[in-house]
């Protein structure tokens, strides 16, 4: 089980975490930790709240998709914040959260995971985690941000739905041993706090440089799906605003703030 006492006292004893997280709530099962965090935003004071659940009955991915969230094996957490950055800069928290997640995984497993732009965590070409940012505006407070993170930790392949088996994995599958979820949560939130404090302190450039370093999308031929159109191109860089810069076949550059990215093997006709 997740150890609420250990996680709470870790937050209190770590200066940056203590400033960011004022309350830690751990549940056996919720519909979605993100949904609960958004609901709590309207009820409570403006302090940071960390919500963890052992299972989610309606875990959310982006664009109305589902996040597979069985009990006793994974991490599902949401952090409710009221950032000092302007709301148009909130997408930067996606890359910062991905970097925090990677650092937490690195501390506990010794392995560096990669970021598939903008919100997926990959190990050995498979998805091990995902990040969902949601915002809520109200006239009384600065806009709220909920950072939702799901990581497959001790999930066995046999317990994964068939449709995910080719594309998803867990830390246990990759490393052949069970990982203590409480240890991983502690490492993850510490690294997340470091990233958030640095970003809010104006250290955006270092965060973007680090994202470029860890982004497995860069250099790849990709297909982009947006609500308006689909196109292909080479993922060249991450802009200073966190966008993905794509070079098209005709030499033109496109800048992507949002959208679905599929890594393709190579440009059609190059084999
Ligand atoms: C994401 O969405 O990757 C964001 C996932 C965020 C989940 C966390 S858990 C805590 C918090 N509370 C919530 O309710 N949500 C957040 P997206 O990029 O849209 O990817 C969703 C897709 O990933 C699905 O359509 C599946 O293809 C795949 N998928 C679903 N569950 C998965 C899992 N457990 N592991 C790997 N892939 C999964």
Structure overview:
Helices cover 30% and strands 28% of the residues. It is of the alpha+beta class. The strands form two sheets. It has a seven-stranded mixed sheet with strand order 1-2-3-7-6-5-4, with helices on both faces. Strands 11-10-9-8-12 form a five-stranded antiparallel sheet. Helix 1 (4-13) runs parallel beside helix 6, helix 4 (92-109) runs antiparallel to helix 6 (181-200) and helix 4 (92-109) crosses helix 7. The chain is globular.
What is the number of E strands? 12
Distance between the termini: 50 Å
The portion of residues assigned to helices is 25-40%
| Widest beta sheet: strand line-up | 1-2-3-7-6-5-4
Q: Tell me what portion of residues adopts beta-strand conformation.
A: 25-35%
Radius of gyration from CA coordinates: 18 Å
Q: Which molecules are bound besides the chains?
A: biotinyl-5-AMP
Q: What do the pLDDT scores average to? A: 94
* Low-pLDDT sequence parts: none
Largest sheet: 7 strands, mixed
Overall outline: globular
> What is the number of helices?
7
Order of helices and strands: HHEHEEHEEEEHHHEEEEE
By secondary-structure content and strand pairing, the structural class works out as alpha+beta
In short:
By secondary structure, the chain is of the alpha+beta class. The protein contains 7 helices and 12 strands.
């Amino acid at each position: 089980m997740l150890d609420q006492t250990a996680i709470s006292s870790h937050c209190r004893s770590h200066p940056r975490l203590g400033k960011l997280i004022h309350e830690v709530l751990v549940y056996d099962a919720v519909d979605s930790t993100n949904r609960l965090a958004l609901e709590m935003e309207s009820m409570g004071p403006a302090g940071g709240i960390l919500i963890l659940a052992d299972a989610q009955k309606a875990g959310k991915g982006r664009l109305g998709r589902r996040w597979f969230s069985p009990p006793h094996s994974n991490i599902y957490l949401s952090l409710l914040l009221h950032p000092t950055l302007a709301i148009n800069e909130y997408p930067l928290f996606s890359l910062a959260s991905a970097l925090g997640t990677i650092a937490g995984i690195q501390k506990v497993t010794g392995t560096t995971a990669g970021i598939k732009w903008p919100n997926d965590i990959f190990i050995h070409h498979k998805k091990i985690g995902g990040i969902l940012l949601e915002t809520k505006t109200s006239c009384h407070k600065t806009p709220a941000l909920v950072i939702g993170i799901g990581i497959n930790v001790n999930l066995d392949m046999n317990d994964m739905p068939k449709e995910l088996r080719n594309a998803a994995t867990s830390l246990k599958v990759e490393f052949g041993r069970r990982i203590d979820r409480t240890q991983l949560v502690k490492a993850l939130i510490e690294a997340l706090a470091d990233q958030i404090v640095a970003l809010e302190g104006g250290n955006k450039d270092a965060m973007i440089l680090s994202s470029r370093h860890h982004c497995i999308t860069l250099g790849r031929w990709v297909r982009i799906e947006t609500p308006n159109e689909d196109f292909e191109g080479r993922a060249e860089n991450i802009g200073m605003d966190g966008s993905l810069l794509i070079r098209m076949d005709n030499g033109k550059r496109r800048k992507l703030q949002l959208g679905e990215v599929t890594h393709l093997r190579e440009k059609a006709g190059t084999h």
